[in-house]
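retry 2 of 3: previous attempt timed out while embedding NAP. Reduced batch size to 1 and resubmitted. Inputs unchanged:
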Amino acid sequence: MTTSVTVLGQGAMGRALAAALLAAGHPTTVWNRTPGRPVPAGARELPLPEALHSDLVIVCLLDHGSIHETLDPFAGKLAGSAVVNLTSTEPAAARELAAWAAGHGADYLDGGIMATPPMIGEPGSSVLYSGAPAVFERYRPVLEVFGAAEYFGADPGQAALVDFALLAAMSAMFAGFYHGAAMVRAGGISAADFGTRCAAWLSAMAGSLPEAGALIDTGDYSEPVQSLTFTKAALDAIVGASREAGVDLDIIGAVRNLADRQIAAGFGGHSSERMFESLLP
Ligand code: NAP
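retry 2 succeeded.
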């Protein structure tokens, strides 16, 4: 049986979600705050609350506040609905929305989209979910239209936690690329050339992350492959070369601080992964 779906929000991502649903044969209703936005061919545009009639209501708006602004006036119409929120919301906000939905008799699943709009429905796209297990199980085949669907348990905030942790790792990695690109500019190398080289280097190095994670999980850093004292010498040299190139130290200085704090605490002979501990409360 085909599932009818409503997509609230026809920004770049909402449109991509609706297009993927239509391509998979799901009757798709769309709503957008500002009328006249382009919508995918075949989508049925309805005002609120009429647009909430579908089996599944997918929300893809700007932020947490915009969800309440949109749905609070019609919350009474959500009883018996399955709401899947794909708006990026922080973990506490996802939990608040789940409690709000439950208070109005609706089942709530929260999702974090790990893709850009053109990637939706293509290989490499994935969406992380947590919240109502029954909604995930029942509508999984529909959700898989967007990409791989992975479930992280009943806590509605868990998918958002993993989503934002991955985005944090990505943001820091990109900032590292910007730093390196600023350094090589002093040597007349373009950011584009450096980007090609840096992508290959980071891909090769990223293979060691599961092993580093396994070491962190043991909490025992006492048998180093590379000690913090060794890493500190390398970071001092990187900072020196950055200074020489006239590059701001905001990024690499922060990395060196993580090592410095552990060395100051007496752990210079421990493994470099101990820098992780500097980030904990
Ligand atoms: P977008 O193109 O800027 O669209 C924003 C949408 O939110 C529009 O439909 C806009 O409606 C609506 N909106 C904004 N404020 C509103 C309000 N107060 N009440 C009701 N509707 C409101 O953004 P997007 O790329 O579609 O992103 C949507 C969500 O997906 C965001 O939470 C974003 O973080 C998440 N996401 C996006 C990407 C990406 O690569 N784009 C990737 C992962 C996750 P109007 O037309 O009326 O302004």
